[in-house]
Amino acid sequence: MEYVKAFLLGGGLCIIGQLLIDRTSLTPARILVAYVVAGVILGALGLYQPLIDWAGAGATVPLTGFGSLLAKGVKKSVAEKGLIGALTGGITAAAGGITAAIFFGFLVALLFKSKPKR
């Protein structure tokens, strides 16, 4: 059942994104930013954690989950370090994911040769 829940929430977020691309003049980049911002807002308000508890990876893997992780990191860091935590907490919380993205992107760039679009 865990996989079904993850699929439903993750798939629902994908459907919303696709509808926004198809039915609005928003660019994909703006939609991605909106997803991260929505995750930050929902995470800061404590509304995203129930989705994470319910859907697991279906909530943490999409960009909204990244935004929620940033908000959670800032909250924790502000509680520990004060105001300076507002500047450092989000990056500290997301450092593992950011590092993995850079590393695997670099690895793929080394292994495969890019081709120009036609």
How is the topology of this model organized?
Layout: H1 2-23, H2 28-44, H3 49-55, H4 57-60, H5 63-81, H6 85-111
Helix pairs in contact: 2-5, 5-6
In short:
This protein has 118 residues and is mainly α. It has helices at 2-23, 28-44, 49-55, 57-60, 63-81, 85-111.
In words, what does this structure look like?
The chain is mostly helical. It has one domain (2-111). Helices cover 81% and strands 0% of the residues. It is built from six helices and no strands. It has helices at residues 2-23, 28-44, 49-55, 57-60, 63-81, 85-111. Helix 2 (28-44) crosses helix 5 (63-81) and helix 5 (63-81) crosses helix 6. The longest helix is centred in the last third of the chain and has 27 residues, at 85-111. The relative contact order is 0.11.
Q: How many domain units?
A: 1
Helix run count? 6
The topology string of helices and strands comes to HHHHHH
**Average pLDDT number:** 93
Q: Percent helix among the residues?
A: over 70%
Largest sheet: none
Spans of at least 5 consecutive residues with low confidence: none
| Oligomeric state of the chains present here | single chain
Q: Care to count the β-strands?
A: 0
Short descriptors:
about 120 residues; mainly alpha; globular
